[in-house]
Amino acid sequence: MNPRQLEQMARQMQKEMMRIQEELANATVEGTAGSYITVTMNGHREIKSIK
């Protein structure tokens, strides 16, 4: 592989990582502990609700 191909591959990987990070930031995750508490968080690790 020549250096130009490596550079192009690195750029593509960087774009893909940015896309995945954005996708994760927009995700919502919910967790439950013993059916007593349910916590909802976003991809920025911010708690959005506790029930």
Structure description:
By secondary structure, this protein is of the alpha+beta class. It has one domain (3-50). Helices cover 45% and strands 31% of the residues. The chain contains one helix and three strands, in the order αβββ. The protein has one helix at residues 3-25, and strands spanning 28-33, 37-42, 47-50. It has a three-stranded antiparallel sheet with strand order 1-2-3, with no helix packed on it. β2 and β3 form a beta hairpin. The longest helix is centred in the first third of the chain and has 23 residues, at 3-25. The protein is rod-shaped, with a radius of gyration of 18 Å. It starts with a helix and ends with a strand. The relative contact order is 0.14.
Strand content: 25-35%
How many separate domains make up the residues? Answer: 1
What is the residue-averaged pLDDT?
92
Strand order of the largest sheet: 1-2-3
Global morphology: rod-shaped
How many helices in DSSP terms?
Answer: 1
Which structural class do you get from the secondary structure elements? Answer: alpha+beta
What level of helicity do the residues show?
A: 40-55%
* Quaternary structure type: single chain
Low-pLDDT runs: none
Number of strands: 3
**What characterizes the major β-sheet?**
3 strands, antiparallel
N- to C-terminal distance: 54 Å
Radius of gyration, in Å, reads 18 Å
SSE order, one letter for each helix or strand: HEEE
Question: Can you lay out the helices and strands and say which pair or pack?
Answer:
Layout: H1 3-25, E1 28-33, E2 37-42, E3 47-50
Antiparallel strand pairs: 1-2, 2-3
